Amino acid sequence: MSTRIRKAETVRARSGGRRASAFLARRSLTAHRPAWAAVFAATAATAALIGAFALVLGSLLLAQPPVERYTGADAVVAADQKVSYTAKPWGSEPRTTTAYLPERARLDRAVVAKAAAADGVAKAVADDSVPLTLGGGSGAVGRSWPSAVLTPYELTSGRAPRSADEVVVDRALAPAGAEVGSTVQLQAEGAARPYIVSGVAEAGNRGEGAPAVFFTEARLTALAGHPGTVDAVGIVARDGVSSDALRDSLGDALPDRTDTGRGIRVLIGSARGEAEHLDALGGRGDLLALLGSIAGTVLMVALLVLSTTVSQAVHQRSGELALLRAVGATPRQLRSAVGREVSRVAGAAVVLGGAGAVPLGLLMRSLLTTDPLPLPAPLWLPLAAAVAAAVFVVGAARPVSLLAARSITGMRPAAALSAARAPEPGEPGRLRTGAGMLLVVGGVGSAVAAMAQGGQAAAVAASGAATSLVIAVALLGPWIARAATRVLGAPLRRAGGVSGFLAAKSAAAHNRRLGAAITPMVLVVAFVCVQLTAGATLERAADRQAEAALRADLVVTAPAGLPADAAAAVRRAPGVAAATGVLRSSVLLAHHEMGDPKLDRYPVLGVTAGELSGTVDPGVASGDLTALTGRSTVAVGRHRADELGVGIGDRVRLRLGDGTQTWLRVVAVYERALGLGEFMLPREALTGHVSAARDARILVRSEAGSAAASVRRAVAPYAGAQVRAATADDVRIAPPSSEEDDALIVIGVGVIGGFALLAVVSTLTLITVGRRREFRLLRLVGAGRRQVTRMLFLETGLVAVAGLTIGTAVAAVPLTAFAVSAAGTLPYLEPVRYGVLAGAVLMAAVAGVVIPGASGGRVRRR
């Protein structure tokens, strides 16, 4: 019986404790609305940002290249566009990494007959494509007439081509005068030549690609230049054959690999788009890696902002909590009350944040979507992303609040009563200080390691250094605030008079509060500086190297590229000292990074060595560029040669754009690799391993004066060829920026930087709202309203200057290491961009301190 009574009493006690906690939570929410409003805003913004990134990442994972060219095909047989590399890391099992090939890997032509003999196959069509330039300079794609069934195209007038000089044109070309019986000028290989239009065809679903021009199969095979291989094989199934049965039948009939060792894939359904857009999935992988890195930073920033805001809100109530503890509230009741408050505020905030995550995520998705890789957004995805963000934020808010309140709720009642009347502690605890110092040492150590490394390893080390230093600033905030007060306090007192004296004394008396105010500013300044400066530094160094390497004064370009013999025609023009055709491609380098296998892609230039010295100067450090001939030589950038440990005469193993492995002998090492790329190959080494062996441009060096007129006459037979003055971008390995780069800058700097600025405003507002009693007391003891307002402006200036200075210093440490390692220069950021950042931080500080603080000083003295 006594046991039952004790159990009943325990149940009643717990029920009473829960009612007391609920009562305290309700009263606190009512009494501290301004403080909880700041927490509400920060929590809602956190949920919106995390939900938006979850939506974009989910959309990327679901993305598939669209099916346009092969809409009429039931299946497509293509070579595997992935390459793998296996290695054994230090003290671990072997690991394999994969990468997508930038150029098309082709199939043996014998695969066409084997596919046609498979059960359930009605027709197997060899599908090759050739880039064309029309007489007016616009681009088109050349295909064989039998492959028209794969889209499908149907004749609307005329007939199929029967001879090498006849073509069927896309209906989209009819406005340009391409009608049955007319003549069109087409350039594939060599100069443009006339073809007779034998028919006009229209596609049921041509998509957004270039219009097609159809040749006879024999003529198209000759123009493609690879008679033993095909780009892909389109399959039309017999009636009644399912896609799965067709795939199994083709799998049984076809070999596992081509003669060159590439795997053979049978693509059905939405996977058919992979055969059209070769690098779409590779771009998706790169984008996922970049967004994943940014998302990791987002989580760190979100947790830091959330913990700072919630901790500050709870800390402002430390006296109240101590008093409740002194009058008999149990630690469990206080923890429950604080947890309930934060959970209710966070629960309401994530509803608003989840709703805001949808438009923000859709905006970010629209910035990243492209024609080769449209990003889907099914109806369930925004809801799932918003719910995931809400669960994460609510789940993180309660533990943060309990940690913030643990020092007060765990005190004995007598000690709590003393703590309620004690001033704010000015120094962090030993554990917090020790952790902060360790992070400082680790951050500086990572920066030093970045200086000793290069490439991706240096970037990873620099990023780790920045993260460590930002967290260290958050932990060591009171110490940093004390140092900032000592440095800035004296000029503040001299320049501000009475208001300056009040501002300096207030800052010196509340180091913990000032540290909490500086931390979000350091976060936004450091993050934005790292995001903007790293890219700007590399771009500036690459621009300078490309400009120093340029020796050509003219360049020839065309929309669809230029055939190989165009450079030879330019060399024969009067007044031309040298002319170099530039073929662009990419190679894959297999190597180890901290023991892990890596497959990195590098863009390369294919050049003609005999004419190179007159048009491009790579800054040769050793070797001879005239030896860059044949199919087995390579020139390597100096930093890359040092990392690989190779010199003149050594061999480097590379995978060319179509996956072919080759050992290349190093004949030269050059300095200007940022501008011209890490590797430079002979043009003939790349010709058979690119999707289309067309020069991106022809660099021309005149003998005396300008040879523009003679060069124009030389390229007149090549449709769309244009001659203009050469610039550094013509020899640069990559363009200064792309739409994807701009989108990532908008997301990384605009979205996350905006969130961090909002965190600055909410944190400063929360701190300022907690000081309203202090402002009223100043007014009551005789301070004028203008003096209090001026004090707030001076404090805002102190916080902003300290935040900008420390944030810049935190960013400068890893950025200097990265810039010295990667570019051999100091970090560079355009002054205008830094000025915009400084102005945004100052405006956020004014919005968070002056505006809410001004109302706190409105007191009528009696």
From TrEMBL:
<feature type="transmembrane region" description="Helical">
    <location>
        <begin position="743"/>
        <end position="770"/>
    </location>
</feature>
<keyword id="KW-0812">Transmembrane</keyword>
<feature type="domain" description="ABC3 transporter permease C-terminal">
    <location>
        <begin position="293"/>
        <end position="406"/>
    </location>
</feature>
<feature type="transmembrane region" description="Helical">
    <location>
        <begin position="345"/>
        <end position="367"/>
    </location>
</feature>
<feature type="transmembrane region" description="Helical">
    <location>
        <begin position="458"/>
        <end position="481"/>
    </location>
</feature>
<dbReference type="InterPro" id="IPR038766">
    <property type="entry name" value="Membrane_comp_ABC_pdt"/>
</dbReference>
<keyword id="KW-0472">Membrane</keyword>
<feature type="transmembrane region" description="Helical">
    <location>
        <begin position="832"/>
        <end position="854"/>
    </location>
</feature>
<feature type="transmembrane region" description="Helical">
    <location>
        <begin position="514"/>
        <end position="534"/>
    </location>
</feature>
<feature type="transmembrane region" description="Helical">
    <location>
        <begin position="35"/>
        <end position="62"/>
    </location>
</feature>
<feature type="transmembrane region" description="Helical">
    <location>
        <begin position="287"/>
        <end position="307"/>
    </location>
</feature>
<keyword id="KW-1003">Cell membrane</keyword>
<feature type="transmembrane region" description="Helical">
    <location>
        <begin position="791"/>
        <end position="820"/>
    </location>
</feature>
<dbReference type="Pfam" id="PF02687">
    <property type="entry name" value="FtsX"/>
</dbReference>
<feature type="transmembrane region" description="Helical">
    <location>
        <begin position="379"/>
        <end position="397"/>
    </location>
</feature>
<keyword id="KW-1133">Transmembrane helix</keyword>
<protein>
    <submittedName>
        <fullName>FtsX-like permease family protein</fullName>
    </submittedName>
</protein>
<feature type="domain" description="ABC3 transporter permease C-terminal">
    <location>
        <begin position="750"/>
        <end position="860"/>
    </location>
</feature>
<dbReference type="InterPro" id="IPR003838">
    <property type="entry name" value="ABC3_permease_C"/>
</dbReference>
<feature type="transmembrane region" description="Helical">
    <location>
        <begin position="431"/>
        <end position="452"/>
    </location>
</feature>
